[in-house]
Q: What sequence folds into this?
């Protein structure tokens, strides 16, 4: 894989940005990568671990002369960051982002992007429960989908180039409309995260079952929820506040179905339960066949545990 | 580890029973292990893969002369199986089970256990989404808790011996009252499973988001739910029907909390969301410190994927 961009600027140096740096370096996709994060602490850590070719003290400095600028901060902060860097953007450059919600980012960032600069919003569907500059790794995007949601009229060449970058980082790339993206993600990510947070909160709240019991006996299913519910609180607060409508719609559907299953339990309708539980297995098979998860029991951790 | 029982009979030859066999064989915990499953197909598979020292054509034959009889069938089938084997039980033998619900098993099995035979119900808190005789492995119970729930007045020597067997199979062992067990498991296992089944069902049902999209983009969180929702439908139907009260109580609490979080999203109360999401992280830390899960991002599968 050869170079796709000259200079790339990463604004925000957390899990996603640091993974992008290591993935770009793996196959030399950019000539130089500059980085900026708002806190001195994160910038110092980045310098110490060799994250980016150059860490800058201001966003303006990082962006100057960049061919691609990647906004990798929480969704709620995208607008302010875009306003800050807008004056420094080079004509012909591309601005993208990696935010988990797309309609909101388009509305918050779009107006700041000057004429002559391309804006191609994106979202890599890959992540872990860890965050910060030290959590990134080059393989994060391998075989995972990245969705690009370019507004109508975007220069096709700018889209193609960004696509080439993501493919170079190992990702599969699809294009999609922003509203559809936000609905699909409400199903595959936002609602599941809220549900996991809720279940872990309930366990923590119960008087009659202690936290010690919840922790010791978590291997019976609960621990998968605790992993999801350990994700960054700021990132997720912003996701729910900015993808409100789609998330609430899916949660409404979820509550309806949950009530139907609760009724089946209450009335002893084993047939309904059995049918429902049989139907959901097909989706799992699909996920495995599509290469989006491992078929090893317990994600393979079963045999590797301490 | 030396021998704990002479002859052990496994009734039911699925994930749990087959894992017990491999775990017992690993350190020679029993002199001979006999096995029985209701279907010829499962018995043939067991014979083919060398599961058990001897596969029997009837439960009666498997149980004859056994020092320990393990009931490893779905919770709803425990009573019938106990009635069938009761006449063959050797005086001084111990009957145990591995069912995921304990009050129901005690009520269904207890009355069939003859005088002079010990009854020590148990539940290993370890499993995977796979089932059947070929899904077992010796390490399944390593460092996982097994809960014993002996009825009052049970012979302490019989309890100690069963505890020694589980410890020999790698497990940590606790004793607990049956009702408390059923409440704790409703929190750590039964409610999470129902919630995961529900969320996967919702995804499958939506008209505006296709199954293909749900599958391709599952890595954003949803795929963890699909794993849980791929568990055996019969086993889980039985769990919900026989642990009805505790499951419904926890689901009621869950729904209350979910409504509160939905309200926070609707009213834009970011502070409430951020606080809630911060609190749930402590539980995850506890799970990892207790050695009940790995701290590797994405359960370690992130770097090992295809
Ligand atoms: N984590 C995932 O699973 C995942 C997956 C796909 C997409 N995303 C999206 O990717 C973006 C970054 O997520 P991440 O996981 O990489 O985050 P992260 O590891 O938590 O890092 C966040 C970065 O944003 C900066 N930041 C936080 N609040 C800010 C603010 N108010 N103004 C300016 N900068 C701020 C942080 O700076 P300091 O460290 O200097 O405070 C840090 O550099 C988010 O939009 C998220 O929705 C995340
Ligand atoms: N899977 C878990 O994660 C897990 C964890 C802890 C405890 N448990 C408990 O362990 C027990 C066994 O679960 P498993 O996962 O090992 O099951 P499994 O792999 O699905 O195997 C079930 C076994 O039970 C037999 N069986 C099914 N229905 C029966 C019936 N109506 N009458 C008699 N035998 C019947 C099957 O026989 P055929 O194959 O011949 O049909 C098979 O031998 C259940 O009580 C479950 O609650 C499961």
A:
């Amino acid at each position: 894989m050869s170079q796709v961009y000259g200079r790339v600027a990463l604004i925000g140096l957390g899990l996603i940005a640091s993974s992008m740096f290591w993935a770009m370096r793996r196959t030399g996709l950019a000539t130089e990568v500059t980085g900026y994060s708002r806190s001195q602490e994160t910038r110092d850590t980045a310098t110490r671990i060799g994250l980016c070719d150059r860490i800058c003290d201001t966003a303006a400095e990082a962006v100057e002369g960049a061919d691609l600028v990647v906004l990798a901060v929480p969704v709620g902060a995208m607008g302010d960051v875009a306003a800050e860097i807008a004056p420094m953007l080079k004509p012909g450059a591309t601005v993208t982002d990696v935010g988990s919600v797309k309609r909101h980012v388009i509305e918050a960032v779009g107006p700041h992007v000057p004429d002559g600069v391309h804006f191609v919003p994106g979202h890599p569907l890959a992540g872990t429960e860890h965050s910060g500059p030290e959590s990134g790794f080059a393989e994060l995007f391998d075989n995972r989908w990245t969705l690009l949601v370019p507004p109508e009229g975007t220069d096709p060449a700018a889209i193609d180039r960004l696509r080439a970058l993501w493919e170079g980082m190992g990702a599969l790339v699809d294009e999609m409309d922003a509203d559809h993206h936000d609905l699909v993600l409400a199903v595959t990510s936002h609602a599941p995260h809220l549900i996991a947070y809720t279940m872990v909160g309930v366990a923590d709240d119960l008087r009659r079952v202690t936290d010690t019991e919840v922790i010791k006996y978590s291997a019976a299913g609960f621990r998968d929820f605790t992993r999801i519910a350990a994700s960054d609180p700021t990132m997720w607060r912003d996701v729910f506040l900015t993808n409100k409508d789609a998330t609430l719609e899916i949660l409404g559907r979820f509550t309806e179905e949950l009530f139907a299953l609760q009724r089946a339990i209450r009335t002893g309708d084993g047939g309904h339960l059995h049918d429902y539980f049989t139907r959901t297995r097909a989706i799992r098979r699909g996920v495995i066949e599509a290469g989006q998860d491992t078929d090893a029991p317990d994600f393979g951790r079963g045999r590797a545990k301490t």
